[in-house]
Amino acid sequence: MPNILFAAGDKRWQQYKDTLPLAFDAVGLTDCDLRRDHAPQDTDYIVYAPSEGGLSDFTPYTKTKAVLCLWAGVEDIVTNTTLTQPLTRMVDTGLSEGMVEWVTGQILRHHLGLDAQIINPDHKWQAIAPPLARNRTVAILGLGALGAACGAALAALNFNVTGWSRSQKSLPGITCHSGEDGLQEVLNTAEILVLLMPLTTATENLINARTLAEMPKGAVIINPGRGPLIDDNALIAALDSGHIAHATLDVFRQEPLPQGHPFWAHPKVTVTPHIASETRPETASQVIAKNIRRSEQGEPLMHLVDRSTGY
Ligand code: NDP
Hints:
With about 300 residues, this protein is α/β, with parallel strands linked by helices. The protein has 2 domains: about 5-90 and about 280-295, Rossmann fold (3-Layer(aba) Sandwich); about 95-270, Rossmann fold. It has 10 helices and 12 strands. The strands form 2 sheets. It has a 7-stranded parallel β-sheet with strand order 8-7-6-9-10-11-12, sandwiched between helices. The chain has a 5-stranded parallel β-sheet with strand order 2-1-3-4-5, with helices on one face. Helix 8 (about 230-240) links the parallel strand 10 (about 220-225) and strand 11 (about 245-250). The longest helix has 19 residues, at about 95-110.
C-alpha cells in the first residue's frame, strides 16, 4: 500500500482530496493511503506544490520513490539540494488546453487589431481589414509540451509558425529551429513572439536589448513563460522607442507585480496575473495516478526533471 503525502496548502487539498483517490482507483491503485501527515520515513510518494505545503527539507524522506510536482515550472525546486529523490513536473492535457486558449486569444487580439475597435472613444470608422493568418509569422521560443501544443493550434489556424528549442525538433506545421543561428532566424521574422521556455540559467534574460533588436519593428511579445526570461529595462526601452509595439505579460520577476512597477501604467503593456494556464485537479490527478502506478510496476516515471538542464 503506497503512502502518499500531499504536501500542498489547504486550498489545494480541498481540490485534490477527492479527485486523487478517484484517479488512483481508475488506474487500479485501490490501496493508496493519501494523507497530509505521513511520517517522512513512511512516505512513498510526495505530491508537491512548492511554497504552499511548507515542505522544503526532503532529507528525512529516505524511502520516498518520487516527488510529483503539481506545477509545470520547477525553477524554484531544482535548486533545493535536499531534494535528491526523482522529481517529476506537471504535463497534463488541462494545462496544455488552457495555455493554447490563452495564447491563441492573445495572438488573435494583436493579429486582428481588436483594440482599435474595442477602445474607440472618438467613434472613428476605421475600415482596415486585418491580414490573413497565413500572412502573419508567429514565433514560439520553447517547443515543449505547451509550446508545441500552441504551435499546432496556431498552425491549424493557418499562421506561419516558427519555433525554437534546445534540441532540434520536427513538428508538423511548425518550422523548427535550434542553436544560436536558429534563434536569430526565428527572431528576425517574429511578428508575434511567444515565450514558453522554462526559467534556467541558460534562458534568463534571453530577451534582452540585443535579441529585441533582432526582431522586426512593430513586433508584439507575449510572455506566459517566466518573467526573468525578459530583461525588463530592455523591454521598456524597446517599447518606448516604438521598436516593440506591445507586450502582453502574464509572469514577472516578482509576483504579484508590485504596485508602482512601470509595467502597470505602460500604455503598451498588458498585465495579466499569472493566469495563462493553471494545473487542473481532475486531469492532473490522472497524470499523478498514472505516474505512481508506473513506478509501482517498475516502469520509468513520466515527465522527469533533468537536474543538469534545470527543467
Ligand atoms: P517543457 O519542458 O515541455 O518545454 C520547454 C521547452 O523549452 C523545450 O522545447 C525546451 O527545449 C526549450 N528550452 C529549454 N531550455 C532552452 C534553451 N536554453 N534554449 C532553447 N530552448 C530551450 O515545458 P512546458 O512546455 O511544459 O512549459 C514551459 C514553461 O511554461 C514552464 O517551464 C513554465 O515556466 C511556463 N508555464 C507557465 C504557466 C502560466 O500560467 N503562465 C503555466 C504552465 C507553465 P527541448 O525541447 O530541446 O528540451
